[in-house]
Amino acid sequence: MxxxxxxxxxxxxxxxxxxxxxxxxxxxxxxxxxxxxCLLSTIFFFCDYVQVRKKGFELTLLRHETEEQxxxxxxxxxxxxxxxxxxxxxxxxxxxxxxxxxxxKGQETTSFMGMGGPSPSDVREKLRAEKDQSGLVQQLRTxxxxxxxxxxxxxxxxxxxxKLLQTKKEMLVHTPSIWPVHGWVTSGFxxxxxxxxxxxxxxxxxDISNREGTPVVAxxxxxxxxxxxxxxxxxxxxxxxxxxxxxxxxxxSKILVGAGQKVKRGDKIAEVGTTGKSTGPHLHYEVRVxxxxxxxxxxxxx
Length: 302
Description:
The chain is α+β, with helices and mostly antiparallel strands. It has helices spanning about 25-100, 120-130, 135-175; strands at about 5-10, 20-25, 185, 190-195, 200-205, 205-210, 215, 220-230, 235-240, 245-255, 260-265, 270, 280-290, 290-295. It folds into 3 domains: about 1-65; about 75-175; about 185-300, Distorted Sandwich (Glucose Permease (Domain IIA)), CATH 2.70.70. It has 3 helices and 14 strands. Helix 1 packs parallel to helix 3 and helix 2 packs antiparallel against helix 3.
């Protein structure tokens, strides 16, 4: 029977008394298995604990990164909304300038902001409420592309507006908009009785009376296209202002410019006289557009 037991003798260090232990082999094996199980369980649970701690740390980092990304997404979303408002104001400004300057409206450029359906800001707000970060990021990408296209459209429109305004500026500078001489209008534009023939005929300009020698100035920028003498109109100056506009000055006593000379608005070009067929000292002033006489008063602002 002793073969079924383990005999263990325990000797004390301080005493000579010996203790004898008998453990059944089956009990020993069971204890050994239990010890191995406990040891393995401890190792398993320790490793599992380490993994859980690691995953918890990674989850904390991921949660922090997610919050940081959400904050950045909200920041960029806010910036996009600011850009949308600025582009909208630019579009309104472009429209107002065209109206004020009486410019033709340019060709409408494609804009994603007027295609119907919910506005981009409404879509972003909905995605934020649903906490759909992936959808929100995709929407932000779409909005950025849309804003890039809108910015290009605004740039093209403003560039066109700049050219139109520059053309308008040139036209204004070359439009005869001031009186060429101070005095009294004794005969206006239109049909009148000719003082020499007594017949009714078209008077193609204005007669402005003043003393002989009164300065005559250019009413707009231009180039003197001709000077000379005419039997009826006496000493004559013709100025070409561009854009099909010319002005003519007749009955002058003195011509102070030559053909081909550039003149600016307000430059002295001649003096009032009574040359040609004239009843007294005055300036006969004409404006023609594409060769057709027009009423000079239509262009005079001062």
